[in-house]
Each structure stands twice: as structure tokens, then as C-alpha cells.
């Protein structure tokens, strides 16, 4: 059994899809912990990424939100006392804008902008009479050591590019069972609808089926060139939203009103058509966890 004292990085996933992708990216997988803290209800997957020993936990099935994630993080830190940093990494719906051309399969990394922390919780705000939204608070920013790492890595990627696409394809070759659900969908499926076009709440069909393919409802975007990173990594403030708030017009409000907010409404898969993160059949998720959002962190 593995020694819990050897693990320094915590990784929390909200749903099973995120957990499958997280486990697939472990360079090696370890045996479970020999002992955990009393009353710890988490189930852990242990492994190594690079030089770091990593512990992965996933939220209980059907239970989402800040309270549940906080409980998982608390129990993890009790059972693995040497964890230095914890990360929330997973899928999210995007709210692209003219400034941020965010597309299916892109990666969003939360980072402070304009003196604001890297994650904007939509609940920390209020809607006033004219229906406009005013933020009233942000979550604390990540520790400096992580922000420094983001600066260094983003600089390396800007200079030399990255191998994310190749890494994903390597994993899919090693794990053929994941290809159908986790392969990158065709770019033609990445349809960006106008914000007022809302996916019917009672429909599980694709956006094309539910909302139609009328070009007047779409925001047309040119294909990315070979000189552009694909997937692209975006850095900035991300937004976290309660699962019950999922409409297209809602999702754009914090993006336009909070300067440099990037686009990731991250509490749950969204049903608004303009935030579709899945393939036309709604059953495929790109292994980079669609819009892979490094949404925030906890540390001690």
C-alpha cells in the first residue's frame, strides 16, 4: 500500500468524466493508501505525473457544489497531510467573446487579472432592477508559486508551442476503449450560437437538433490556421456558477461585466446552446476534458 505522507499534489474532479481523463494522464498509477483519516468518505486514486506524487479524488455521484467540494478537499488534506497544493481541474462551458476566441477542446487556466482572484464565483454578486449584474466578491488568488509556474509554462508554450494534441492522441492509442467518447469531435460540431438562443431545458438532443442550423443564429468563426495553437490555452479569470443557472443570456452577463473574465462557467455541463461543450450526439467529450478548466486551488 502507498504511504499517504508521500503525496504533495491534490487533484479534485467534480464528475466521473473528469476523473477518467485525470487517471488517464497519470504517468504511473500507485496502490491505494494504507490508511486514511477516520470519517474520510473519499475514494482515492494515487499516481505520479512527472516528479510529483498526485492524489485524485472525485465528488460523490450526483452531488455538486462548493459545499461538497470543500468536504472532499478537507478530508483529502486530513488523510494526506503533506499536500501542498490542490487543484480543481475539469470540464466547463465556454462563453467566447471577440477578445477570447475560445473553442471546443481549448484549455482555460484561472489566473488573476486586474487585481481580482483567478476564480469569480457568480454567487458573489447581485442582480439589480435593470437586470444588470454587479459582482460583490472574488475568491482568493492562487499562491505565488503556482502563479510563477503558470508564467514560466505559458512563456515556454508561446515560444516553443506545446504537444497537448500529441499527448492526448498517445493516450487514446494506449486506451482504445476511450476513443469513442473522448476523441476530439470534428471542428464542424463546434457551433457557437448567439447568446439569446437557449437549448430547451427538457431536451437531451444535440444543439443542431434542438436549436437548428440556421446560420443567422450562429456566430461564424474562421478555421484556425497551422500557425495557431490548437487546442489553445487561455489564461485569466474564470467564473463558477451554480448548476441550476444555465441559460445563454445569463452566462454572458459576468463575462461582459467583469473585466478579463475568461469564459468558463464551471460548476456543471451547461445546456445553453452557445455553451455546448459536447459533440453533436452529446456523448463525446474530448480527452483534454473539453474545455479543460484549471479552475482554482486549495492549499495549506
Mean pLDDT: 75
Radius of gyration: 19 Å
Ranges where pLDDT stays below 50 over 5 or more residues in a row are 124-130, 244-293
By DSSP (H or I, 4+ residues per run), the number of helices equals: 7
Distance between the amino and carboxyl termini: 25 Å
Q: Any overview of this molecule?
A:
GO terms for molecular function: catalytic activity. One of its GO terms (biological process) is nucleoside metabolic process. This is Nucleoside phosphorylase domain-containing protein. The structure is a single chain. With 300 residues, the protein is α/β, with parallel strands linked by helices. It folds into 2 domains: 4-83, no CATH class; 107-221 and 229-285, no CATH class. It is built from 7 helices and 12 strands. It has helices at 16-24, 66-79, 144-160, 164-174, 179-182, 207-211, 248-257; strands spanning 9-13, 28-30, 44-49, 52-58, 85-90, 107-110, 119-121, 125-127, 133-135, 233-240, 261-265, 292-299. The strands form 2 sheets. Strands 1, 2, 3, 4, 5, 6, 7, 10, 11 and 12 form a 10-stranded mixed beta sheet that branches. A two-stranded antiparallel sheet has the order 8-9. β8 and β9 (133-135) form a beta hairpin. The longest helix is centred in the middle third of the chain and has 17 residues, at 144-160. 39% of the residues are buried. Mean pLDDT is 75; it is low at 124-130 and 244-293.
